[in-house]
């Protein structure tokens, strides 16, 4: 497949996944004013800890089986019905295990934690695991339109239920948790029906799949270990901040994460499309320059968007947050810069999946996490949330460097590293200025230089996109 055709496919998939992801992300962003008005900083910190725990449990207990569903589903050697059936078998076993563990925990510590929190943890895990497996199945099956429609259903459900449970019927933390779990449930139901999963289950009974589950688990287990490292690298600092500084400090820090979440929305949309293209179009020598060009375009968009968001950070915080959360602006710049490198790390991670080097991916994640946690232990006790945000940036930057080095033995990409290095340095310098001074005027030279350095790349990309669009007509 030529480079132009690859770009067309990547662009089409990106548009579909934009529809799928954008709805829920916009809802989460627009509801921040309601959250900061309804919840105290302590309640907001508690919600974040429970949600973050679910995000860790899903890849650990399911052994990250959703990644195997995508990889094996895209491989014509394997039958799709057996792939999806194996994914659900793992979810079933893990859900029984979690239910038993929670029952024992509730019996032993009945006075220390509300039962509603345990119920939310369980159903969020169950519906979230099903969501991950079904979305990967639809991606592998090329059913992007169905996936996009279910994303809209998810967004509509979360939006409606959040309004009902927080504004109309003030149910507080329990209302938020119920709305979140229900959103996943309705999306799961839609994907299950639109993806014709019942028919796949019936067909799986007649498919020879001996050894496939073991092969899929062997592929996904290293990714599960790597996800633990990724979780520690991206969320472990919040638990340490809670431990050293309390729930209120963690609530402010969690609120600060909502601004980088804007950038993460754009990254997630592209990553969902890229995870398919990177596997389908994997070329160790990058003979047509497709992989290197995509890296540079993605990097340019991430860095530029980050610089602009950093510049308008104060305005966004004043607009979105209540007065009690305003102090969180100080932690946003380092978290934004860290989000850029986190996105680049995920981009590079797709090459490990394509080459089936999942053990190497896991090792790099765990190494990066160890460095991040060590930095957090050193910086949080004396610097609080400032230390947490700085450790998050340094951890992401270090992991990006580790992955770039290890990938030299897997793939060769032609990238304009001199320009990339200058822009990364400018962004890091801007983050320091933005964290130190509330006056945004000092950031203008850095933002201007970044835009100027990437201008020719943006111009080339726009012209190429217009040419492809015109040819499609």
Count of helical regions:
19
The major pleated sheet works out as: none
User: What fraction of residues sit in β-strands?
Assistant: under 5%
Low-confidence stretches: 468-473
What is the β-strand count?
A: 0
N-to-C CA distance: 20 Å
The number of distinct structural domains comes to 1
Rg:
22 Å
Shape: globular
Order of helices and strands: HHHHHHHHHHHHHHHHHHH
How would you characterize the overall build of this protein?
The protein has 473 residues and is mostly helical. It has one domain. Helix content is 83%, strand content 0%. It has 19 helices and no strands. It has helices at 3-30, 32-38, 41-61, 65-73, 80-108, 115-140, 144-168, 172-194, 197-204, 212-245, 247-256, 258-280, 290-311, 313-320, 332-354, 358-383, 385-406, 417-436, 444-472. Helix 1 runs antiparallel to helix 12, helix 12 (258-280) packs antiparallel against helix 13 and helix 13 packs antiparallel against helix 15.
């Amino acid at each position: 497949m030529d480079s132009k055709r690859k770009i067309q496919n990547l662009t089409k998939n990106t548009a579909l996944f934009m529809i799928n992801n954008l709805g829920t992300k916009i809802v989460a962003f627009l509801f921040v004013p309601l959250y900061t008005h309804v919840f105290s900083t302590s309640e907001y910190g508690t919600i974040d800890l429970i949600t973050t725990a679910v995000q860790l449990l899903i890849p650990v207990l399911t052994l990250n089986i959703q990644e195997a569903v995508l990889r094996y589903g895209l491989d014509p050697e394997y039958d799709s019905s057996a792939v999806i059936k194996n994914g659900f078998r793992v979810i079933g076993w893990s859900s029984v295990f979690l239910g038993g563990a929670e029952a024992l925990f509730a019996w032993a510590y009945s006075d220390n934690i509300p039962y509603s929190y345990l119920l939310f943890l369980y159903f969020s895990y169950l519906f979230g695991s099903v969501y991950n497996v079904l979305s990967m199945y639809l991606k592998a099956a090329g059913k992007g339109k169905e996936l996009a429609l279910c994303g809209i259903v998810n967004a509509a459900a979360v939006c409606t239920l959040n309004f009902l449970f927080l504004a109309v019927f003030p149910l507080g933390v329990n209302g938020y948790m119920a709305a979140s779990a229900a959103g996943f449930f309705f999306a799961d139901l839609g994907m299950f029906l639109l993806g014709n999963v019942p028919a796949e289950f019936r067909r799986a009974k007649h498919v020879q799949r001996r050894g496939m589950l073991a092969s899929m688990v062997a592929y996904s287990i290293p990714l599960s270990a790597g996800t633990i490292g990724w979780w520690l690298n991206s969320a472990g600092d919040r638990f340490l901040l809670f431990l050293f500084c309390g729930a209120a400090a963690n609530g402010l820090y969690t609120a600060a994460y909502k601004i980088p979440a804007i950038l993460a929305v754009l990254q997630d949309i592209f990553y969902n499309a890229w995870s398919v293209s990177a596997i389908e179009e994997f070329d160790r020598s990058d003979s047509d320059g497709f992989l290197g060009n995509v890296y540079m375009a993605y990097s340019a968009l991430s860095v530029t968007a980050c610089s602009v968001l950093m510049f308008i950070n104060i305005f966004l915080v004043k607009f979105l947050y209540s007065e009690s959360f305003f102090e969180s602006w100080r932690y946003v710049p380092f978290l934004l810069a860290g989000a850029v490198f986190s996105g680049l790390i995920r981009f590079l991670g797709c090459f490990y999946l394509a080459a089936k080097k999942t053990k190497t991916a896991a090792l790099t994640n765990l190494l990066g996490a160890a460095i991040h946690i060590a930095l957090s232990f050193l910086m949080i006790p004396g610097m609080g949330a400032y230390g947490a945000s700085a450790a998050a940036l340094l951890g992401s930057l270090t992991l990006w460097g580790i992955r770039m080095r290890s990938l030299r033995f897997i793939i060769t990409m032609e990238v304009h590293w001199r320009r990339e290095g200058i822009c990364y340095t400018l962004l890091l310098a801007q983050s320091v200025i933005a964290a130190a001074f509330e006056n945004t005027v000092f950031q203008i030279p850095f933002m201007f230089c970044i835009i100027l350095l990437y201008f020719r790349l943006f111009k080339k990309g726009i012209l190429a996109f217009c040419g492809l669009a015109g040819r499609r007509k």
